[in-house]
Specification:
Aminopeptidase, about 325 residues, about 35% helix, 13-stranded mixed β-sheet
Length: about 325
Amino acid sequence: MVTVTASPIEPGGTAAWEALAQRWRVLESEADGSFFTSWTWIGCLASERFDAPLLVAADAAGETVALALFNRRRRWIGRSRLWLHEAGRRALDTPFIEHNGVLTRDPALIADCLRAALRHGHLVLSGVEEPTLLAARATGKAWRRQEPRPAPWVDLRRVRSSGGIAPLLSANARQQLRRARRALETGGPLRLARAADPAEALAFLREMAGLHQASWQARGQPGAFSEPFFVRFHETLLARALPRGEAELLRITAGPRVLGLLYNFVHKGRVLAYQSGFAGAAAGPSIGQVCHWLAIEEHAAAGRNVYDFLAGEARYKTRFATDVMDMHWLDLER
């Protein structure tokens, strides 16, 4: 028999957070979750992000089989809103979550967990995959919003069997990328370096942030690193994730010239291309595409299965992608 409960956590209770971390890690090792439902991500600055946390848990025969952490935002009019694995405040949610959902060993329990949460308010479910979408429909509650976004990805098994990414591209894309690569190599051989320790990763992250901000601000946009909490979150996350092999900073150079840096998460054979910064934005998108080309082939050779570009239809994503899936942003109301 499975028992599903929804109970608040004392926001400042250190012991409660430590106990939840242990419980979460055990389930995480058994469930088919994503990096964004791992405790490395959920637990990063958790006591600051979740100021009114509600834990939904499913237990069977003394074992935890599902967990979901919501944060409750009270409203002056109407019922509270509960945000799945988010704070519900713009500044604290700038570390964008995707591949979100209930962490569980049994997807059949997702709907029960959502029903338990719905007793406490409306639900905001950001970046969830199809099992959560179907479970939300199964609750029979009203939709207020449903926004699907495509997430292109590269099947690295196909890259390995093809001898590289180039044979999987269109003839036009292949020609353009090879031309761009030859042009960059005139400055020296291309080299991909991985940050070896947290200190070097932090240095790479700050270098990448400078390139990222310069590129976005040149287009009249603030850039992701303009938000102080975003910076602090990822600096903290790196210290947790890098020693566990769950994050990487890649620095791509052509001779002495820095072309760009990639910030990826690595989880259960899946590489998540989360953030980047490239030099020479005025030269067009070819530098970024060559950087991703090198990273894709590096991970294919390392035996990983997926290079995930996450949500969005940017041209470089669709150019490389062998497949695409949908993620969903939705509100669920009683």
